[in-house]
């Protein structure tokens, strides 16, 4: 199974980032990437996909946003060419933007009918092929120097010829933010599970009863990482839910049905995900990217300085 297409869902308006997301698409907000350059969030996510072998990209967006993305990226490229003629890093960056512009497509979600519906909007683009699914408000940092988080997931999916979702062992007080699952670890394959049960944002009491996974540390559960590889079978399942109730189509019930019908694995990805929409999520993601990349020393120095300033204010 070869995965050459990716879908990024970016149709939500970003209420949790109000009021800034009311003036600019949240996926276009800048952050310093591991290469030390300021980039729009969605460019960083796209480069995660391209670095993992993806050849075609579809962004599921709100009506009219596709043209805004194209205009913004074209403007970024033109400004780099005009302002930094002959500068090596600027040339490399414009090449990346040209690659993005040549490979990106858009699928509009006409109404906000749920995350499952947003994924379904990419069906025509996927065209009966397996695909990588990424969230437009998550950034990922791998713990492996030469292997991105998406690469880890794609390799397992291609090897096992099935859908695979990335997961992270997550401490119990945070599981109410994520889809949470349990399953049986594959013999001889640490960190790989056959998914059995999935519950969206469970309470701790429910998780204790239904989602314990043998082998995990006490108080930890397997939570979605915000990254999946799916076979096209997911669209047939989503289609049934849309026909039954088109008002709020969640992805999690469809994934539970997929787990019951097909081989569907979870992989403990060696890395971390950062939800930009949660409170202080942007700050956390920026610190993580800074520490993981070329701005490591500057980031560490800035953190130490801030902690020293905060401590001095307490002592006054």
UniProtKB/TrEMBL annotation:
Protein name: UTP--glucose-1-phosphate uridylyltransferase
Keyword Transit peptide: no
Residue span, Nucleotidyl transferase domain: 5-262
Keywords of the record: Nucleotidyltransferase, Transferase
Origin: domain of life: Bacteria
Catalysed reactions, semicolon-separated: alpha-D-glucose 1-phosphate + UTP + H(+) = UDP-alpha-D-glucose + diphosphate
Keyword Cell membrane carried by entry: no
Family classification: Belongs to the UDPGP type 2 family.
Enzyme class: transferase
PANTHER family: UTP--GLUCOSE-1-PHOSPHATE URIDYLYLTRANSFERASE
EC number: 2.7.7.9
Organism, as annotated: Pontibacter saemangeumensis
Pfam family, one: NTP_transferase
InterPro entries found in the cross-reference section: GalU_uridylyltTrfase_bac/arc, NTP_transferase_dom, Nucleotide-diphossugar_trans
